[in-house]
Design goal:
heterodimer, A: about 60% helix, B: alpha/beta, 4-stranded parallel sheet, about 35% helix
């Protein structure tokens, strides 16, 4: 399945992986509350 | 028609090309004319079976797809999970295969989990069967037909006879609201940026993470013939800065469970900070138009008087456009299936 193949791509850095998960609507499963706030 | 249609499934807009958008817009415009006739029905899908597999409640999308299929003279099957064998433990794939065995040609699928239409399409391709899958909303991922009807509504407003994606170039379009959880927003980001729109996203930081500004970075699914990576959407954590000089504003429905998720203090405070009101709309261009995918929470994401003002609101036109666009999608997929 296209979505799973993209998520499991080992060449992705953690940051780009999370941006990609955001594109795929999987953000709530993976991002912390602090990250969701958008500020460090 | 400028280019052939080569898609068996419509699952996402992430790899749609400008010529494909134009085919959908031109086809939908033809069907819009059909819908003004006394007899609003054409025989193009006669004998084909369209199955609505809605695993999640839906009123307008399901009705719109059902009417679109009927206008094309297709036979319709409607599936509701509460009255089905799912409640007896049947898997989603087995449900899909059951409808396939009944002779379904196209399945329109909605599910609350992202990726379910992709999974069913993958299984159908593996079985090497001629059936088309149309994503009618999967979780927070995408809602392609909604974004295409939004595009068609804007396109026909800009050029009634010849709507095309290039009309978006340079238009400032603002999407306001719960971007994070919105499949409508995600599909619209793909379509609006493909047309060269100046896209702005606005919402509270809890519902608009800063990473939306990196939308196209390292994106694997951009069409291979994209001449350059589109500029990313601009983010605003204040609605006023986003609205300045806007041509179109899309407001998103705010789901009340966001408060129990502690992402919002209250609906009243959300309206005070991000609600579209008559005062705020003055910040936009004078001819600004407002879109909403529905259902609308009046007095939350948009004030009731603005929602009802035909000088601003395109909501009714969106619903009407939805039937023509869904007719176009079913027609294009059905024609492709008959020819492959």
């Amino acid at each position: 399945m296209k979505i799973m193949v993209q998520v499991q791509d080992p060449s992705k850095t953690p940051h780009s992986l999370e941006v990609e998960m955001l594109r795929m609507g999987k953000a709530m499963d993976s991002l912390s509350a602090q990250q969701l706030m958008g500020f460090n | 028609m400028s280019a052939p249609w080569n898609r068996r499934h419509i699952l996402s807009l992430d790899d749609f090309t400008p010529p494909e958008y134009d085919i959908v817009l031109q086809t939908a415009n033809s069907f819009r004319e059909v819908l003004t006739r006394r007899t609003k029905r054409v025989p193009t899908l006669q004998g084909q079976v369209v199955t609505n597999l809605f695993f999640e409640p839906s009123t307008r999308t399901r009705s719109s797809f059902e009417l679109a299929a009927k206008r094309l003279s297709a036979d319709i099957l409607n599936f509701s999970p509460g009255q089905s064998s799912l409640s007896k433990g049947e898997t989603i794939l087995d449900t899909a295969k059951t409808y396939l065995a009944m002779g379904t040609d196209m399945m329109v699928i909605r599910h609350r989990e992202a990726g379910v239409p992709h999974a069913i399409a993958h299984e159908m391709d593996r079985l090497n069967v001629k059936v088309g899958i149309l994503n009618a909303g999967d979780g927070q991922h995408e809602h392609p037909s909604q974004a295409l009807l939004d595009l068609f509504t804007i396109g026909t407003l800009l050029d009634d006879q010849n709507p095309r994606i290039s009309l978006l170039k340079g238009k400032k379009i603002v999407i306001v609201g719960d971007i994070l959880h919105s499949r409508v927003a995600r599909s619209n980001i793909w379509s609006l940026t493909a047309g060269g729109a100046d896209l702005h996203l606005a919402g509270p930081p809890t519902l608009l993470p800063k990473w939306f500004g990196e939308w196209f970075k390292d994106c694997p699914s951009l069409p291979s013939n994209t001449p350059s990576v589109p500029p990313p959407p601009q983010l605003h954590w204040s609605i006023e800065s986003a609205l300045a000089g806007a041509d179109f504003v899309m407001t998103l429905r705010l789901q009340k469970e966001r408060m129990t998720d502690h992402l919002l203090p209250s609906l009243r405070e959300y309206h005070q900070q991000f609600g579209l009101t008559r005062r705020r709309i003055q910040l936009c261009k004078p001819a600004v138009k407002v879109l909403h995918p529905g259902p609308v929470n009046r007095g939350v994401e948009i004030s009731s008087d603005l929602m009802d003002d035909p000088n601003f609101s395109l909501v009714s036109q969106q619903v009407t456009s939805g039937v023509a666009v869904r007719m176009a999608l079913l027609y294009l997929m059905g024609s492709h299936l008959m020819n492959c």
